[in-house]
Structures are given as C-alpha cells and as structure tokens.
C-alpha cells in the first residue's frame, strides 16, 4: 500500500486531541483517504475522528486489527535485551504497543523480555 500526504501532498502531520501524531493521507490505487498514525504506521479505522478526545470514542465496536496506542493507565516496564537489563520505561501504552516500539528501537535483538513492574 502506497500512501501519500492528502490534498496534493500538502498535508502535514498534526496532533489529535488525544496527543496522537497523525496525518491525513491518500491511497492513489484505491482513491481512499484515511488517517495514518505517524508513530506506529497503523492506518486508523475509517470512522476515526481526530477531533475526539480519545481515538477509541469514535470506534463503534472494537477492531481487533488495530493495536491501541494507549490504554490510559501509566505502567512501568523492565526491559531486557538478549538477557541483559537495558532500561526501565514508564508509559501509557498497551503492553503490545510497548513491545512493538522496542522491536523497532532494537532491531538486531534476538530476545526482548518486557515485564510489567509490580
């Protein structure tokens, strides 16, 4: 899938009301317009509305193909890469989103062990 900035390429990324960095994009092959999450490269559901406080407000039902970026609660994670402690991070991301982010940060890692701190 090839996506280009909408409006003739003039669209710029912006932050929606929930703090997510998104961009309005165009898919030339199908002619569809959509919003793209700039952090995760996930195309958001067609009924996504950047004016909502939470991106989940505009989903009529759960879409299992979309990994939630934030679940609202702060959590602390201990991270080991290839058996060696690397860092402790705190965020509001879902566990799945945190692991996905670490895989991009450490692309050569053979084993990423992420545990929620108790």
Structure write-up:
The protein is mainly beta and 118 residues long. The chain folds into two domains: 1-63, no CATH class; 70-116. The chain is 13% helix and 37% strand. It has two helices and seven strands, in the order βαβββββαβ. It has helices at residues 6-9, 95-105, and strands at residues 4-5, 14-15, 21-27, 32-37, 70-81, 84-93, 112-116. Strands 1, 2, 3 and 4 form a four-stranded antiparallel sheet that branches. Strands 6-5-7 form a three-stranded antiparallel sheet, covered by helices on one side. The longest helix has 11 residues, at 95-105. The N and C termini lie far apart (41 Å).
Q: What is the count of β-strands?
A: 7
How much β-strand is present in the residues? 35-45%
Largest sheet: 4 strands, antiparallel
Instruction: Please give the domain count.
Output: 2
What oligomeric state do the depicted chains represent? single chain
Low-pLDDT sequence parts: 55-69
Cα-to-Cα separation, first versus last residue: 41 Å
User: How confident overall, as mean pLDDT?
Assistant: 76
Global outline: elongated
The secondary-structure element order is: EHEEEEEHE
